[in-house]
Design goal:
The structure is a single chain. This protein is mainly α and 183 residues long. It has one domain. 70% of the residues lie in helices and 0% in strands. The protein contains 7 helices and no strands. It is elongated and about 55 Å long.
Length: 183
């Protein structure tokens, strides 16, 4: 047995639990799903690739945590476009909350490693709390909070993150009718 199989089994979820139109659980269902929606798989993956390319044009690799959070946003927007966390309100609002939470935590004194990691953790916790309270839940935005808390606020990064969120949301809004949930 593979480790992944055991982990899923231990989590109490049946392996390969989703069904396509009553088919039994099997690898064949994934092949059938791919045959039906292969154009969407390619099209939506290509859109995500282009969106991340645009982000990488504006952010340096020093902002790796923020780049990763935008990449995760691209996954949600293009692989799970019908999910509530893919809505423009959530993508844009969540990343703004992440920017603000991370920025707030950079103001905390960080005289030692323990204080620093506490501030980073607090940025994530605050961003989650605010997103849930104002109904802008977008999990990757907690990564934005972490990245800003770790590297500090920069107007360049704020503009890049907000622009990225707006681009992702605009593409999602314009193409919503042609995007399918791929998960």
């Amino acid at each position: 047995m593979s480790i992944a199989f055991l982990m899923i089994k231990m989590a109490g979820r049946p392996v390969l639990s989703r069904k396509i139109k009553g088919e039994p659980n099997s690898l064949g269902k994934y092949v059938e799903k791919f045959k039906l929606f292969w154009k969407n798989y390619l099209y939506q993956s290509f859109l995500a690739t282009l969106a991340v390319l645009v982000v990488l044009l504006f952010l340096s690799i020093e902002q790796a945590v923020i780049i990763a959070s935008i990449g995760a946003s691209a996954f949600i927007v293009f692989a799970m476009p019908k999910n509530v966390t893919a809505k423009p309100r959530n993508v844009i609002g969540g990343h703004i909350v992440g920017l603000l939470s991370g920025s707030l935590c950079t103001l905390l004194p960080q005289p030692s490693f323990l204080y620093s990691i506490s501030a980073y953790s607090l940025a994530v916790g605050i961003s989650i709390f605010i997103m849930v309270v104002i109904d802008t839940e977008h999990p990757p935005a907690a990564g934005t909070a972490l990245g800003v808390a770790m590297k500090g606020f920069s107007l360049h990064v704020a503009i890049a993150v907000i622009t990225s969120a707006v681009i992702l949301s605009s593409i999602h809004y314009i193409l919503k009718s042609s995007l399918k949930d791929l998960t």
